[in-house]
Amino acid sequence: MKFIEVKIYTSHQGVEPLTAMLMEKGISGVVVDDPQDAEELLDKKNEYEWDYIDRSLLENQEKEPVVSVFFEDTEEGRRQVQELKISVMMLKSKEMEGVFGWDADLGRLYAEDRVVDDEDWKDKWKEYFKPAKVTETLVVKPTWETYEKTGSEKVIELDPGMAFGTGTHETTTMCMELMEHYLKEGQSVLDIGCGSGILSIAAAFLGSSRVLGIEIDPDAVRTARENVSANGVSELVEIREGDLTKDVDEKADLIAANLIAPLVIQLAEPAAEHLNEGGVFISSGILTERKEEVEKAIREAGFEILEIREKGEWCAIAARK
Fold this sequence. Notes:
About 35% of the residues lie in helices and about 30% in strands. The chain is an alpha/beta fold and about 325 residues long. The radius of gyration is 19 Å and the shape is globular.
């Protein structure tokens, strides 16, 4: 199969608004090549507690950051590419209008595309995915890397495949932090839009007695099931292809939904229906500019807001039924 690779040239400052725009459009499988990230990791190595850093990633610090996404080389894929290019142009217009501040520099915001074979890109992102400690006790490690755990660390083995969710994005780490704080030993969990299965596996490692991961994408379902098996939690975690509103009768003590703002708003009421009394709803993937809108929908669904966390341009909300 052939794919269309779209490379968008930006600046270090432009990476966050650009990736936020991609997530809002539902585009996954994003590869970010930003040389400045490696330098910042060295400056904050005690905070992130990486097992190691590949020194080759520190070369060419002056190189222009590039955000890459991929589409199938079909009529629909080509249409999506053209829509994306228009969205990039609109992002540039917003920058010129001062939406991001008059001193903001999002770089060229130039998009170019080329057709590539499956083998040319499917493993390219792996060189950027290294072991990372994402909460006080959880470490996410790609299956092809080695890591020696210390103390009470719990190591999640992950191979995201084509599913979205390596566990190191702000939206995912905030979800895991909130789960670590609010999930009690022996409680049940629903993971809505489970993607690679990262949150479902994390819930099992944090003491959940039963986890149900729901996902509508069949490719993601296969990947999530493989990851669950690789982590030895198949007896605790079920990955089900389907939709919360149509294919789930069960209730849980905690629901995690790392999605995007419109979906969180849409799922607030169904989440309340699927939670036990006193249960906790954790939602993430919410741009801070839409925080109040999402918070309002969650309150109107009968929840009490417990906590709101923010990282970069993203926020996560914990609420109790």
